[in-house]
Write a structure and sequence with these properties.
Length: 404
């Protein structure tokens, strides 16, 4: 090799750094020389923004539930106030009707009083006239001394007697009417007093019920204002979290290549699936074949069929299709002698093709239960120079905790 060619080879190797910790070839930055490097945003910043969204949403949901409960309370309280208002209205109507009766009876009593007073006055005048003429003794003396006027005097006495009798009858009737009218008035007044008490009690009950309804409405208004404020804050935080994630993805894409998404560790590794850990790597009694057999990877379960499977690291697709007990299977060459495998993919769930380059965190498939599987899960395999290794510590050493 010439000296110039050796120098060129040395420069080329210098441009392809190798990770000492993993032995994986680290790709150069994908940002072009003409583009400004995006500002670095860490996953901790993304997680903090998402945590703020989650906390605010949880609080908003709580306040929303309180608003619903308060609305129901307002409806009940107002219904109670309406019912008590109806009771008060009926009590007022009954009171007004009785007041009308009292007024009519009082008018009758007043008329009876006037009639009795007139009868008293007439009787008094007659008595005064009798007294002026000397009464019965005076009339007798006049008859003795004026015998020629006896007919006139007797006629006068008879006439006065009739008037007196009539006056006494009118007076007696007036007294009876007066007493009867007054008795009815007294009874009506007593009924009016009872109705007044009922009306006052109904008014007091309505006032209390309406006050409770007003208090409930005020509490509802306050809760609605709080919910509206939280909703506005939640919208702002959601947008901020989305911008933070977009900035993070942009930075990671510039570092690891287009398609990079989600939480990527400093060494460029990502969690291949969300969920809890199932069967571990190593020998196990196979649940289908009922024999002891090597379990070649780490199962990640709990997310259900159709949920995303992500590339654990940047690499090239070397296999994408059916693979025996692994079902539908994808294998990536991640460089540096490392490869990762993804098994039991759902039918139609392979999203990449052989020869395609993928980035860490990029969705490549969907969780399924094809092959030798009893339920939907990802069977995640890691090989180093072709030899199987336990994915759990391997990923942990690269900053990723499987099953989180």
């Amino acid at each position: 090799m010439s000296r110039s060619r050796a120098l060129a080879a040395s420069l080329a190797l210098a441009l392809v750094p190798v990770s000492v910790a993993t032995g994986v070839i680290v790709p150069p930055s994908y940002a072009s020389s003409s583009d400004a490097t995006p500002p670095e945003i860490t996953w901790d910043q993304v997680a903090a923004a998402q945590a703020s969204v989650a906390a605010t949403k949880a609080l908003a949901d709580k306040i929303k539930a309180q608003v619903a409960a308060l609305q129901a309370s307002v409806d009940r309280a107002q219904a109670d106030a309406d019912a008590k208002g109806q009771v008060y209205a009926k009590a007022q109507d009954a009171y007004d009707a009785q007041e009308y009766v009292v007024q009519k009876l009082q008018g009758q009593a007043d008329a009876a009083h006037k009639e009795a007073d007139a009868a008293k006055k007439t009787a008094g005048q007659l008595l005064a006239q009798l007294a002026k003429s000397g009464g019965a003794d005076g009339l007798t003396a006049s008859l003795l001394t004026n015998s020629g006027q006896a007919d006139q005097l007797l006629s006068k006495v008879g006439y006065m007697s009739q008037i007196t009798d009539r006056s006494q009858q009118v007076y007696a009737k007036a007294l009876r009417l007066q007493k009867g009218a007054q008795a009815l008035t007294d009874q009506a007044d007593a009924a009016k007093a009872i109705l007044a008490q009922l009306k006052d009690a109904a008014q007091t009950a309505f006032a209390a019920a309406q006050a409770a309804a007003d208090a409930a409405a005020a509490a509802l208004t306050s809760a609605q204002a709080t919910f509206a404020d939280l909703s506005a804050k939640l919208d702002a935080l959601t947008k901020q979290a989305a911008q933070t994630l977009a900035g993070y993805n942009e930075f990671q894409a510039a570092k690891w290549g287009p398609g990079t998404a989600g939480h990527v560790s400093a060494s460029g590794w990502a969690n291949p699936a969300n969920g809890y850990l199932g069967d571990r790597f190593g020998m196990r009694f196979h649940p289908i074949y009922h024999v002891w057999k090597l379990h070649t990877g780490q199962d990640i379960s709990g997310t259900g069929c159709g949920t995303p499977i992500y590339a654990a690291h940047s690499g090239t697709v070397t296999y994408a299709g059916p693979n025996g007990d692994l079902g539908n299977f994808i294998q990536l060459d991640n460089g540096g002698g490392i490869s990762t495998g993804y098994g039991h993919i759902i039918a139609g769930g392979i999203l990449v093709r052989i020869g395609q380059h993928v980035a860490p965190g990029q969705q490549i498939a969907k969780v399924g239960s094809t092959g030798g599987s009893l339920g939907c899960h990802l069977h995640f395999i890691v090989r180093i120079n072709g030899a199987l290794t336990d994915p759990l510590p391997f990923m942990r050493d690269r900053g990723i905790t499987l099953g989180s």
